[in-house]
Amino acid sequence: MNSNKPLDLSAKVPPIKPSKLLSNSRRIEMFTYMLQAREFDLAMQRLNRQGRAFGGVYSQTGNEASSVGSAYALGDKDVLFPMHRNIGGHFVFKQDLNTLMLAFLAREGSLMRGTDGTGHYADVKKRIYGNVSHLGAMIPVAAGFVLASKMRGESVVSMTYIGDGGAQTGEFHEGVNFASVQKLPLILIIENNQYAYSSPNSVEFACVKLSDRALGYGCFGVTIDGTDVELVYETCFKAAERARKGEGPSLIESITMRMRGHAEHDDFSYVSREELEYWKKRDPIDRYQKYLLTKKVLSLDEITSIRTKLIDDIRSAIDYAVDLPFPSGEEGFKNVFID
Amino acid sequence: MAQLTYLEAIADALRTEMHKDERVFLLGEDISTYGGAFKLTKNFHEEFGRSRVLDCPISESAIVGAAIGAALNGMRPVAEMQFMDFVTCGFNQIVNVAATTAYRWGIGVPMVVRGPSGGGVGANPFHSRNSEAWFAHASGVKVVCPAFPADAKGLMTASIRDNNPVVFYEHKGLYRKIKEEVPEGEYIIPLGKARIVREGIHATIVSYGSAVHFALSAADELLKEGVSIEVIDIRTLVPFDQETVLASARKTSRVLIAHEASLTAGFGGEIAARIAEHAFEHLDAPIMRVAAYDSPTPFAPTLEKAVLPNSTKVMEATRKLLLY
Ligand SMILES: Cc1ncc(C[n+]2csc(CCOP(=O)(O)OP(=O)(O)O)c2C)c(N)n1
Ligand SMILES: [Mg+2]
């Protein structure tokens, strides 16, 4: 895969590369998380149009395989530092819908008490650490987290994400270099979804593949099709294995497409119809669904009933959250410092 | 009690805390074998091992960011900026990640970022800066600027034990210049308590860091003329001990604020505003300030002397204040 070259619009959609590491029940689980991420995304878009969700609503559509496949490869001691298009990872790490919906809508009792929004929160018990808006900033932090684990002789892998735009920050460089020097168990997924806000890859970088940078850092690097969830899973699972063996970080460029605007306010008129058509054929959920149906892992009826249940659950999470009041203004004065 | 320099007192605090608490570790540039640019951590790696005295690449964002990550994971890191000037390269991590974490996540970031700051040593604009006010404005970081060895030790201990991020400004000009009795073993001075370094009745000089020493020598001179000056060392900008400052303003009715950092939007402005708001009717003179000229800190000794405050400038300003 080549991240910085014109698309071959006539290219055939490749088949899913099945992972030998996955049982059918785990395939179904991954697929369910992907569907959940998609349905959550559609729900957020609706809430935004209705004026009930405010702030940036960053679409996850197109990123489900990348987000779910990567997080699913982690173990139960590992930690996740998700970014703004990694709702899938929140679900893999067992974040419940009500908590997530409350946080997104900043209602009373939400994880961040209304101090911040979207998926920025940390839920330490669930090993989910959030982020700040400043792109790249969490890479050194995710590295430092496992520096501490390593000092105590604990085997913990830390996974975080960055975009094709965020990968051009100084903190990306400092973080990856630091993690490589210290051989830290860090997995950094560069989700190259073709655009950074309105900027295509050609505005952001001049190298052929972003994973080529791994050579310069002395860590492992690979560029993969980020719309094939089994390939993402297998690549990340192996990265985690290397990390646990003390072989250091991995830089995984996952090629995807941001199927909507940067956030819901953006009409993405700068993306051509042809390009969207190309990627529509590579929709991560459609691809995987086709595979699961062909292999008879699931039937269409079963998929429909999974989907119906997910939609119902999301609807009741919305019902639970939207009518709650915003937190009282008093919350704004708390916790600037803690004891 | 031992006679320690300011630098030795800080090293003593680090060493004592590292012995006491396994979670405390150091990271920075050239801090192990070399012992740090000012040799503050000399031989530390022999005592604690290189993983607790971690040499890092020249990556201030990564150093501060890794410290934050480690702090989130149960450690108490102390990150050294080789010169505090270079904290600019780690600024984002401090003001956007560390400073917002308690507010957003309800979790502490028990981290100290420390290093040598300040001018008067013939360095250059990039090795002399006093940037403490930037962090006082960040909301969510504590800011410490000790002026004496014992205070430096006690405040460093408190900073390491604090559950919030602390930016700790050491003055490089004081490192080996002053020596005093410093309590041995664990010694802690709570953050947010100003110290009345000298009691007086005719006027108050509020200061911190190197300027406390300018204030003291000005007070010495004036005492020969029978003028008694109260000198307050605020010691920490955040938290700020407003009460001690206000009490002194009410007592002497004349206040001069002195700091080595440049004047405009310096912390002295904040102190002046607090006094003006809460002790206005007690004042017999306008609040005055002595600070560096609003320029980068220049290289040549003549220029540096011209723009930075010193004892003479503080004394002249105090006379003006007394005559008003
Ligand atoms: C350091 C920084 N600069 C600018 C922004 C504003 N901004 C937010 S998202 C974004 C585009 C990010 O693109 P990319 O990294 O490719 O991630 P994507 O949104 O495509 O997933 C920009 C410019 C920011 N959040 N952080
Ligand atoms: Mg992008």
Question: What does this 3D model show about the protein?
Answer:
- By secondary structure, chain A is an alpha/beta fold.
- Chain A is built from 12 helices and 7 strands.
- Chain A has a single domain (24-324), classed as Rossmann fold.
- Chain A has helices at residues 24-49, 64-72, 87-92, 97-105, 138-151, 170-181, 201-204, 213-217, 229-244, 273-280, 284-294, 300-322, and strands at 79-81, 158-163, 186-192, 195-196, 199-200, 220-225, 250-255.
- In chain A, the strands form 2 sheets. Chain A has a 5-stranded parallel beta sheet, sandwiched between helices. A two-stranded antiparallel sheet of chain A has the order 4-5.
- In chain A, β6, α9 (229-244) and β7 (250-255) form a beta-alpha-beta unit.
- In chain A, α1 packs across α12 (300-322) and α2 (64-72) runs parallel beside α9.
- The longest helix of chain A has 26 residues, at 24-49.
- Chain A is globular, with a radius of gyration of 19 Å.
- The mean pLDDT of chain A is 96.
- With 324 residues, chain B is an alpha/beta fold.
- Chain B has 2 domains: 2-182, Thiamin diphosphate (ThDP)-binding fold, Pyr/PP domains (Rossmann fold, 3-Layer(aba) Sandwich), CATH 3.40.50; 195-323, Rossmann fold (3-Layer(aba) Sandwich), CATH 3.40.50.
- In chain B, 39% of the residues lie in helices and 20% in strands.
- In chain B, α1 runs parallel beside α6 (149-161), α7 (210-224) packs across α11 and α8 packs across α9 (267-279).
- The longest helix of chain B is centred in the first third of the chain and has 15 residues, at 6-20.
- Chain B is globular.
- At the A-B interface, α5 and α6 of A face α3 and α4 of B.
- The structure holds thiamine diphosphate (TPP) and magnesium ion.
